[in-house]
From TrEMBL:
Signal peptide: none annotated. It catalyses: di-trans,octa-cis-undecaprenyl diphosphate + H2O = di-trans,octa-cis-undecaprenyl phosphate + phosphate + H(+). It comes from Limnobaculum parvum. Its EC number is 3.6.1.27. This is undecaprenyl-diphosphate phosphatase.
Length: 195
């Protein structure tokens, strides 16, 4: 498995001959693309509104963070640049690489929209998540298996969230919406945000 991981990394990783425009695309995906998560969730809460989707996504992301941290502690794996493998064009600290935190967040978010949102937008976010995963391998800070692990963590996080939601989700959402209605009473009355 390690040999396959290494060979796949070498196929994906940037080279001195890589086009400058592709490096720029990869840097945007690796650094800024993840920032759309809070923006999308805020829009989905205030203006769409898809509040059940928002809360389930946030719960799944929390599970993802916890699982990724636990796996990184139990199964630490060094990053490619620490082993002197390939080329690194993205600054990164020497933390365990498995599973990728960026990959976990992106895949969990995309899977949440696939499972609980609309298929079309879920497919768009999955392509976005794959782009983030590719970029971080391409720029030399992750192994491909780090991203495969992140996808699996995302799946497990969504399944755990669905189980938790079946037990306590509806009353939790009702209470959150009551709090939201009290706090945002003026913007709601002025139709700046949805009820």
């Amino acid at each position: 498995m390690e040999n396959f991981n290494y060979q796949l990394f070498m196929m994906i990783n940037v080279t001195p001959n890589s086009p400058f425009w592709l490096i720029n695309v990869a840097e945007f995906l690796a650094k800024q693309a993840i920032d759309i998560i809070p923006i999308v969730l805020l829009i989905a809460w205030l203006w769409v509104p898809r509040r059940e989707l928002v809360i389930k996504t946030l719960i799944a992301l929390a599970f993802g963070v916890i699982l990724a941290k636990a796996l990184g502690t139990i199964f630490p794996h060094v990053r490619p640049f620490i082993q002197g493998v390939g080329y690194q064009l993205l600054d990164h600290s020497n933390t365990p690489s498995f599973p990728s935190n960026h990959g976990t967040g992106a895949f969990t978010f995309a899977l949440a929209f696939l499972f609980w949102g609309r298929l079309g937008i879920g497919m768009f976010f999955m392509a976005w998540a794959l782009g983030i995963a590719w970029s971080r391998v391409y720029l030399g800070v992750h192994w491909p298996m780090d991203m495969a692990g992140a996808l699996i963590v995302g799946l497990i996080s969504c399944f755990l969230t669905q189980w938790v939601w079946s037990l306590w989700g509806k009353p939790f959402l009702t209470n959150l919406e009551k709090i939201y209605h009290r706090i945002f009473i003026l913007p709601i009355k002025k139709s700046w945000v949805k009820y």
